[in-house]
Amino acid sequence: MITKRKLSKRWRDNIAGYGFISINVIWVLIFGAGPIYYSFKLSFHEWNPLGTSIFIGLENYREVLSDWVFGMAFKNALYYALLTIPAGLIFALILAIALSKIRGRLLLRTLYFLPSVCSTVAIGILWKWMYNPDYGLINTLLGYAGIAKEPHWLGAPEWAMPAISIVVVWAGYGYWMVIFLAGILGIPQIYYDAASIDGATSWQKFRHITFPLVTPTIFFYLTMSLITVWYQFDFIYVMTGGGPAQSTTMPAYVIYEAAFRDFRMGYACAIAWVMFAIAFIMIGLHILLSKKWTFYGK
Amino acid sequence: MKVSKWKRGSIALIIWLVIFAGAIITALPFFWMVLTSFKTQIEAMRIPLTWFPSKFHWDNYRGVWTWVPFGTFYINSIIVAVAQTTGVLLTSSLAAYAFARIKFFARDLIFLLYLATMMIPFTVVIIPQYLLMSWLGWVDTYYALIIPGLCGAYGTFLLRQFLITIPSEMEDAAAIDGCNRLQIYWKIMLPLIQPALITLGIFTFMGSWNNLLWPLIVTHSEKMATLPLGLSMFSITEGWQIHIHLGVLMAATTSAVIPILIIFMIGQDYFVKGITLTGLKG
Q: From the candidates A9, A11, A108, A121, which should be mutated to test the interface with B, based on the most B CB atoms within 10 A?
């Protein structure tokens, strides 16, 4: 009797388990695993809308690596990463530290966070017109400050990417500030008190208590940023369409153009896989290197 | 003593300067956006800039809502976001419960594979997904907008993290009382992870609401467009720009942004709690 009940439970658990995950797993197979496999297969073909794709081996990949536009997109992505990641970190950290030192921070926290909840399209349109050389807000403010030579921002190849980077940082620092703030506030007061007894200055407290304990959150920030940097699409689509002179095109946008403007699905898949490989390697390196400077524990 | 007081004062000053600067930088664009939305065409594009409109010019808003199917965009976004959020919450919590609390054959292996699919970026899968929609004849329908987003690996992962931490005594007690798995899930587990559910719900809703790329690819007609897509057409398509001037454009963006801002201000506690929970745990 007892043995029978035991088997029964295991069977019941199996049925329950598989039942509960069934919808999810089916969905992942149809929209996750399936497309991954198909995308990989497709990247080796010259796709034809009539359904007669031709197998062309590594042709697509060779083309990606020699494509001028993709090269620009990759360079731009690196430039974009360089512009947005450190700046975003600095803004978020500085604001988080400042907010951690005052009371009544609720209202301010809400304010700084506002850009992060807004639709990227709305922000993109807003800033696109703020950047208008003639009557946009930015150049007007620069005019007040007496800067006569106003850049043409989104119209100038040298300024377009920095312009977009500014928007991205503006839209993002509130989100990360909240996370950093929670991290900072989570540091037990005892550490600081002990340091005070030992006669530590504010700067020393920051350098030896606050900063080390915040490095895991910084690591998280860097990881997420390194992942999302390559796939920025919305702002480029709304603000510049990749121009001027391909100075703001980025990998996700190139894939979009290849697939849905030029209808070269196989080629687009190849670009996507190349980007995945590059991102994977970079993030892997980052995670390996981070062990050297991330501080866990006491 | 005097020296340290001086130092403390100047540190406080720096802190407040930083905070003030941050506030101005964050708020000024919104301020300009709302003000400009009330200006006439001439006022909006005048050089040099006029900050305040001479009076509140509501025509821009009337234009936004009547010239283009702005209401349709809203309705579509609501339908899609609500459907996807409900779907994700239900399927993710069911699966998360199973992965966390039920021992079934090959459970951890399946979960690992599950996670592995999460690592692949959307750029890789989006093309086959589109082709699938096309093949099914779902392009330009609600099916294509909603169904691919009905489940999510991320939600399952997140909820499982929460469910793992729950002690099993409650489950055992319920089992003794004769509850089956489904009842345990519904009556015990779900209430216990309520904060996580709310957070996941908010995130899913926002992600769905602000999604541009997928609706862009998968719809062709104005009738099916969602809000971000509809809004982007103000900026991209040449045809519309004949009637559009900056004031109208700003009215459009304000109309798109205000509801989210209001929702956010009301529910911001959940927002922030959720972000910090996922941020610190991650």
A: A121
For residue A54, what are the β-bridge partners?
A46
Residue type, A238: V
Which residues of chain A have a CB within 8 Å of the CB of B89? none
CA-based end-to-end distance of chain B: 44
Contact B11, A202 (CB under 8 A): yes
pLDDT at B61: 86
pLDDT digits (tens, 9 = 90+) for B194-228: 888 888 888 899 899 999 999 999 998 888 899 99
Strands (E) located in A141-292: none
Cα(B27)–Cα(A137) distance, integer angstroms: 13
Closest CB from A31, A111, A135 relative to B45: A135
CA distance, residue A182 to nearest chain B CA (Å):
6
Closest CA to B242 of B250, B234, B251: B234
Q: How many CB pairs below 8 A link A and B? A: 266
Could you tell me the pTM of the whole model?
0.86
Instruction: List pLDDT tens digits, range A7-46.
Output: 577 787 888 888 888 888 899 889 989 999 999 999 998 8
Interface test with A, best of B123, B184, B250, B255 (most A CBs within 10 A): B123
Contacts of A268 in chain B (CB under 8 A): 127
With contact defined as beta carbons under 8 Å apart, do B103 and B164 qualify?
A: no
Contact yes or no for A133/A127 (Cβ under 8 A): no
**With an 8 Å Cβ cutoff, are A260 and B125 in contact?**
no
In B, minimum Cα distance to A220 occurs at: B282
Residues forming beta bridges with residue A46, ordered by sequence position: A54
Q: Identify all chain B residues contacting A93, using CB atoms and an 8 Å cutoff.
A: none
Write down the pLDDT at residue B274.
77
Nearest CA-CA partner of B196 in B156, B168, B227: B156
Neighbouring CB atoms inside 10 A of A243's CB total 15
